[in-house]
Amino acid sequence: MSTVLIIFCVLAAITLATAFLTIFSRNPIHSAIYLVICFFSIAGHYLLLNAQFLAIVHVIVYSGAIMILFLFTIMLMNLNEEREVHRPRITRVGAIVSFCLICLVLIAIFINSKPIVGEYVTTGEDYQSIKVLGKILLNEYMVPFEFVSILLLVAMIGTVLLSKKEKLQK
Amino acid sequence: MSIESISLSGRKKLVSNKEMTFWERMYLIAIVKGLIITIQHLFTRKVTIQYPEQVREMSPVYRGQHQLKRDEQGRENCTACGLCALSCPAEAITMKAEERRADEKNLYREEKYASIYEINMLRCIFCGLCEEACPKDAIYLTTSKVLVPSSYEREDFIFGKDKLVMPLDIAMQNAQLKNAN
Amino acid sequence: MDSTIIIEKSVIIVAVFALTMLMAMYSTWAERKVAAWLQDRVGPNRAGPFGLFQPLADGLKLFSKEEFEPNTPNRFLFFVGPAIAMSTALMTSAVIPWGDRLHLFGRDILLQATDLNIGLLYFFGVVSVGVYGIMIGGWASNNKFSLIGAVRAASQMVSYEIAMGLSIIALLMMTGTLSLREISMQQAGMNWNIFYQPLSFIIFLICAFAEANRTPFDLAECETELIGGYHTEYSSMKMGFYLFAEYANMFISSTILAVLFFGGYNYPGMSWAVENWGVNIANVLGFGALFIKLCGFIFFFMWVRWTIPRFRYDQLMHLGWRILIPLAIVNIIITGTVILRADIAAYFGF
Question: For this UniProt entry, what's an example GO CC term (chain B) (predicted)?
Answer without folding.
Answer: plasma membrane
